[in-house]
Design goal:
Number of strands of chain B: 0
Strand content of chain A: under 5%
Distance between the termini of chain A: 31 Å
Shape of chain A: elongated
Structural class of chain B: mainly alpha
Largest sheet of chain B: none
CATH class of the domain at 34-102 in chain B: Mainly Alpha
Structural class of chain A: mainly alpha
Oligomer: heterodimer
CATH superfamily of the domain at 34-102 in chain B: RNA polymerase sigma factor, region 2, helix turn helix motif
Order of helices and strands of chain A: HHHHHHHHH
Shape of chain B: elongated
Strand content of chain B: under 5%
Largest interface: A-B, 54 and 74 residues
Number of helices of chain B: 9
Helix content of chain A: over 70%
Helix content of chain B: over 70%
Distance between the termini of chain B: 81 Å
CATH topology of the domain at 34-102 in chain B: Rna Polymerase Sigma Factor, Chain: A
Radius of gyration of chain A: 26 Å
CATH architecture of the domain at 34-102 in chain B: Orthogonal Bundle
């Protein structure tokens, strides 16, 4: 077998490809179900999990925005409740906006464009998505306070800030300190690309690593 | 006035239905004529038979979705290769259902390689080894080279210049030659 591989030249590779071509034609293992289906429009794609994630995010944002709008419109006379409601409202709208931007970007992907352009576009989209997710995640280090305040007021009629203002003060202080620390670390690591990469990978996980690997792979392919 | 308006709407809807039916027929005919592209791309990127069938289905789905935007002035096979390769690369990166399971190499190839003579089976296996040793983008390049596509068409499909394609194919040949002699 090894002897055969050693002697196999490129022309033989081509003839092996043609042999495989003939076999594939005869082989029934792969069926194009589409040729048997009468309703082509009903075909569903498996390559859309990111789009579903955005739809869920938009739905959650819509729910938050509507809930917060109803809340702050009822508490316009209490400043801290009004502010808490407006913050949650803004967070809900941001979730809708971010989800819509990613969704539109996904829908604009044209698979019939040149391979390298589309693969780069897909990987860049994933990087934006992961980074956006990280920013949204970080903002919750403070957002949880008005969010919990709204839940307490709506569900139990308890004004959290009036009853335990220290929860809000300490929460905000810790949240700001955490965000500031992350920002400082990010700025400092900008001068150390390897460290920045490690931090990003740790924060965003496997998705970003994979997206970056794809971008690196495309760059290597173009330069080779 | 209303009757004329309704009649116009009805005629418009009928024209749309006829357009859709024509498009459907045209698509089926073109897909049937060029189905080898779907099989070969699926075969180059998936070893597991179930994943391969899923990928072929996914390519067909995306071809159907992109078909309304297909410009009849351009070569259908070039357009089809672009869609098929883009889908195959994304499919592979999203991870097939069965790809993660480590099936012994020969068993994976059994379904396609089994119906030939021993010598031809070995040639197909050796070909698979060459394909599998390449990263996904070079795999696309090798596939198009083996399909005897012109440099201009390969450049158009991948989004490179013709000169760049020529250089890459030269390097790929060299690499394969080295791999083969070193095996």
């Amino acid at each position: 077998m090894r002897q055969m591989e050693k002697t196999m030249e490129l022309d033989e590779l081509k003839s092996a490809w043609q042999l495989l071509d003939r076999r594939l034609e005869q082989h029934a293992a792969i069926n194009l179900h589409i040729l048997k289906e009468s309703q082509l429009d009903r075909l569903r794609s498996r390559l859309r999990p990111l789009a579903w994630g955005q739809i869920v995010q938009i739905a959650a944002g819509l729910f938050m925005a509507l809930w917060a709008a109803a809340f702050w419109s009822q508490h316009r006379d209490v400043a801290h409740l009004l502010i808490a409601g407006l913050i949650v409202h803004a967070a809900g709208l941001s979730m809708i906006l971010l989800g819509a931007v990613v969704l539109v970007s996904i829908s604009r992907i044209d698979y019939s464009a040149p391979v390298l352009a589309i693969q780069r576009q897909l990987a860049q989209l994933r990087v934006i998505y992961v980074r956006g997710g990280f920013v949204v995640g970080m903002s919750w280090s403070i957002l949880w306070i008005p969010f919990v305040a709204l839940i307490f007021q709506s569900a139990f009629g308890i004004d959290l800030y009036a009853n335990a203002p220290s929860v809000a003060y300490i929460g905000v202080a810790v949240g700001i300190a955490l965000m500031f620390g992350v920002w400082l670390l990010h700025r400092w690591s900008a001068r150390h690309p390897e460290l920045q990469r490690t931090l990003d990978d740790a924060a965003a996980g496997a998705s970003l690593v994979r997206a970056r690997r794809i971008l690196d792979e495309i760059a290597r392919f173009e330069q080779s | 006035m209303t009757r004329v308006h309704n009649r116009t709407i009805q005629m418009g809807q009928q024209a749309l239905l006829m357009d859709a039916a024509d498009r459907n027929t045209q698509f089926r005919e073109l897909l049937e004529r060029h189905r080898g592209i779907v099989f070969k791309v699926a075969n180059a990127y998936c070893r597991d038979p179930h994943d391969r069938a899923d990928l072929a289905q996914e390519i067909a789905t995306q071809l159907w979705r992109a078909f309304p935007r297909y410009d009849g002035e351009r070569t259908f096979s070039t357009w089809m290769y672009r869609v098929a390769l883009n889908v195959a690369l994304s499919f592979r990166r999203s991870g097939g259902r069965h790809e993660q399971l480590l099936v012994p190499f020969d068993a994976q190839l059994h379904d396609v390689a089994a119906n030939g003579t021993d010598e031809s089976d070995e040639r197909v296996r050796a070909l698979y080894r060459c394909i599998d040793a390449l990263d996904p983008l070079n795999r696309a390049l090798l596939l198009l080279y083996l399909e005897e596509r012109s440099y201009r068409e390969i450049a158009d499909i991948l989004g490179l210049s013709e000169t760049n394609v020529a250089t890459k194919i030269g390097r790929l040949k060299e690499r394969l030659r080295n791999d083969m002699s070193g095996a």
